[in-house]
Structure to design on (606 residues):
């Protein structure tokens, strides 16, 4: 059923009461209601010269009737008129309540649009005329034309921004651009590139070229058409390194990446990209859930990790710094906030002071739009250490290694205050590792080294079941001191060594008394002592040798047996027995008698 309005439609009717009108035929020079079409609706007016009724009627060819579907106005207080007998005129009209027209100023005016407007959806797009609104059947979207005759803007699908090019040269179609300022409240643009963060922050892509010192439009979202023959369908397109260029390969460090969107069609004449600009450069970023990086991460600045444990599955970690600091994070981790405004301050740095429980107070003392300031104290502003200090957004030093950092430089509320307490940290600190021997040995345990603040010694351990934390409990049943193996030690070792190949300090070994001599001994090899015995300095046992003076002289030997190689001489009962290899050969008794076992040979020579 459609609403149909035709010119010169007029009939008579003699209908009475409040029922449907029975049409009696067209007046001379007019058409009948049959031109409305069976089942369609139309606007009508009926009058008998006194009463009237204006409404929406539905034409029915059978019985040539027009039902009174909706009453718009009437002489019966806008209700259905109860007609009396007599002839009435009924005709197609344009109700004032349904009129849409241009006023005396040429502006479109409608008395009332109750719910919607219907656009023709079955025809091609109309010719260009700035300000023309229509339904684009191809994109199935309400569309309009602006001053650019080569553009069709689809509401709900495309977003565009009017801009001014004062860059000094023409910017061609398909160029990504960034905002540089404004000219008469219109944003100014220049070609974007990936060389700096500011230039990489593309606002969109030009659908058509904009000459220097001319206005135009940039598509900031939706589908933008330009020459995409150098791009590949399905790939992401990014701001390129050269000014105004694009690339399907994201520029790597040190360049700045901005993802423009997805290539939908690769064509020189009708190519297009679905634009959804995503800059990959951020001044600040905060992630409130878990995050995952699929590839390498490079951090050029300091990396602060607030947590109780940091886990890495790397096989090794390479550190370029000569010193790696443990136990040196931010001392004040959770400052308290008092106020009603922006809570964005934190205390940073490791406390280097010696005072326990030192409290730092920071308070906003002025807020002037873009240059908020703060003051600070350590005694709750009985005295003030500094005031009207401009907030920079960086770490701003207080004292004893503690700084304050605000995430925003403006927008704070005067007298809002942050408080944090610091105290010296003196706990065991060192390096630990997991060890698991499996079903044999100690099983799962920890090994490592640490500085024991209770003894002021560096300590090694090869077994410790609890997770190593601020204090290592050496009295724990699982704790075991570790052995150290090294090629050499330089310095002082306290305690006793089980073995050593050389003495740290060589010693001199000396003989004194009747025999004298000395030698230096460091334990690296055997040594001999050259001994000097003093003359006439001692008495020998008379059983062996008695002597006087420098020469042997005479001596008495008191020996039971004298061994002379294979011969032995034995004294027994005053006789001397001479044996050769254990057998007696001759004897000399105390009377001078010589007895021999064999013959005695004599000669004048031997």
């Amino acid at each position: 059923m459609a609403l149909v309005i035709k010119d010169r439609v007029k009939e008579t009717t003699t209908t009475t009461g409040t029922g449907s009108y029975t049409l009696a035929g067209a007046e001379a020079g007019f058409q009948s209601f049959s031109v409305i079409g069976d089942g369609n609706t139309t606007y009508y007016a009926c009058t008998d010269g006194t009463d009237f009724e204006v409404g929406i009627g539905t034409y029915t060819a059978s019985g040539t009737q027009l039902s009174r579907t909706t009453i718009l106005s009437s002489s019966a207080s806008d209700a259905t008129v109860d007609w009396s007998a007599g002839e009435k005129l009924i005709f197609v009209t344009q109700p004032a309540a349904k009129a849409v027209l241009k006023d005396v100023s040429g502006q479109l005016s409608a008395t009332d649009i109750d719910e919607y407007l219907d656009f023709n959806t079955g025809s091609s797009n109309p010719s260009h005329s700035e300000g023309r609104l229509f339904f684009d059947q191809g994109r199935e979207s309400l569309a309009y034309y602006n001053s650019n005759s080569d553009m069709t803007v689809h509401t709900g699908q495309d977003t565009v921004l009017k801009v001014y090019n004062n860059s000094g040269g023409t910017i061609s179609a398909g160029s990504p651009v960034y905002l540089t300022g404004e000219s008469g409240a219109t944003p100014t643009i220049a070609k974007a590139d990936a060389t700096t963060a500011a230039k990489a922050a593309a606002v969109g892509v030009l659908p058509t070229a904009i000459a220097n010192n001319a206005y135009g439009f940039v598509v900031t979202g939706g589908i933008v058409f330009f020459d995409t023959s150098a791009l590949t369908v399905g790939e992401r397109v990014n701001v390129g390194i050269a000014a105004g260029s694009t690339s399907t390969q994201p520029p790597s460090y040190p360049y700045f990446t901005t993802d423009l969107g997805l290539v939908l069609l690769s064509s020189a004449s009708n190519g297009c990209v679905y634009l959804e600009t995503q800059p990959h450069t951020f001044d600040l970023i905060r992630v409130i859930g878990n995050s995952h990086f699929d590839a390498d991460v490079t951090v050029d600045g300091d990396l602060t990790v607030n947590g109780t444990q940091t886990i890495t599955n790397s096989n090794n970690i390479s550190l370029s710094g000569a010193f790696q600091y443990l136990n040196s994070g931010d001392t004040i981790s959770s400052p308290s906030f008092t106020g009603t405004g922006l809570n964005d301050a934190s205390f940073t740095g490791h406390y280097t002071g010696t005072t326990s429980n030192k409290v730092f107070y920071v308070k906003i003392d002025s807020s002037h739009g873009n240059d908020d300031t703060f003051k600070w104290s350590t005694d709750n502003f009985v005295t003030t250490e500094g005031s009207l200090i401009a907030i920079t957004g960086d770490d701003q030093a207080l004292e004893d290694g503690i700084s304050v950092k605000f995430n925003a430089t403006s927008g704070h509320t005067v007298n809002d205050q942050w408080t944090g307490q610091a105290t010296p940290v003196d706990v065991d600190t060192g390096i630990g590792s997991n060890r698991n021997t499996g079903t044999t040995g100690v099983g799962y345990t920890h090994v490592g080294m640490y500085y024991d603040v209770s003894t002021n010694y560096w300590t090694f351990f090869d077994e410790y079941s609890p997770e190593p934390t601020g204090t290592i409990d050496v009295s724990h049943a699982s704790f075991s001191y570790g052995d150290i193996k090294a090629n050499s030690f330089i310095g002082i070792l306290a305690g006793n060594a089980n073995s050593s190949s050389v003495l740290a300090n060589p010693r001199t070994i000396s003989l004194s008394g009747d025999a004298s001599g000395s030698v230096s001994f460091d334990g690296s090899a055997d040594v001999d002592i050259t001994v000097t015995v003093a003359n006439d300095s001692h008495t020998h046992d008379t059983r062996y040798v008695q002597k006087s003076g420098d020469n042997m002289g005479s001596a008495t030997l008191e020996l039971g047996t004298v061994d002379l190689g294979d011969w032995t001489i034995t004294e027994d009962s005053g006789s001397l027995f001479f044996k050769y290899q254990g057998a007696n050969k001759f004897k000399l008794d105390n009377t001078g008698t010589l007895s021999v076992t064999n013959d005695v040979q004599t000669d004048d020579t031997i």
The helical segments are 197-200. The CA atoms of residues 354 and 424 lie 6 Å apart. The longest strand covers residues 214-225.
